[in-house]
User: Fold this.
Amino acid sequence: MNKFYFMKSLKMFSLLMFTSVCFISCNEDIVSPGSNTQDNFKYPFSINSFWYYGTRNFVTNLRPDSLSSIYPTDTVTGFGGATFLKDTIINNDTLRLFRNSHSDQGHAHTTLELYKQTDSGLMRYAYFSDGTNFGPFRNENNYTLSLNGREFGSVRDLINYYNYDFYYSKDNQVNDTVLYFDNPPVTAVKYPVVTGMEWDFYRVLTTRLTKKYTGYEYVVSNDKTYYCVKIRKQWYNNNSLVPDSHLIFYDYFSKEGMVKRDFTIKDIAVSNSSGQLLGYIDVKEEAFLNIFSQP
Assistant:
């Protein structure tokens, strides 16, 4: 396989909702700096609301520098679009279908999820994937990536495993024709928005994922300034009480919805086919809002 193939694989959003639980927003009323709460916070939930976004990803902090012969540091750009399509009734409950499609350099993927807006938050009730260009994937030039005791055949496998909250890991493949129900439903956005509040987002065996409102920041994207709430997603592995320091994940949201995402995976071990450790790399990816449209 071409050694540059892995760089074409990184994606931004799934469950996004979010990942795509990731499309969270602030209230129409801007919160003044120093306030720790925002009243009447609601996610833009109208049918045909649409987000068009760009993505950038790259490998960085190669140790030693000779790893650049395997993993180039060129930035790969991509684009995507996400929208609430329509309402549908499942199990006597009215849910709204959310579609998120992304592509970079010829590799495309679409996720479909079902949400419901409640007084306590934006809740995801079910999901399924079309499986386009998803793994498992063969190793890139017989090199293996390792993090937290797991091995991955490519950067794409690694990013998908964490960015999609384990739904598309090698040992948990999603069938593209089956609707999977969240039990209990996943709280993608918690209401009201309160600085410092952390809530359980998702659990997988001994791993717990949380989201936490860390504060507000101004973010410039596409020559426009947005006042955003900053949210950190954290992984607690092996029933640990301390979040995983290798995974640094922030979302930034304004009243228009998702504005920016920063995701860094640190200290990824690179080994050859004989199991010899060659060194370490970090992987960074970001997404940024280009256009938001709401009926």
Remarks:
- Confidence is low (pLDDT under 50) at residues 1-35, 130-140, 167-175.
- The radius of gyration is 19 Å.
- Residues 5-27+35-293 form one domain.
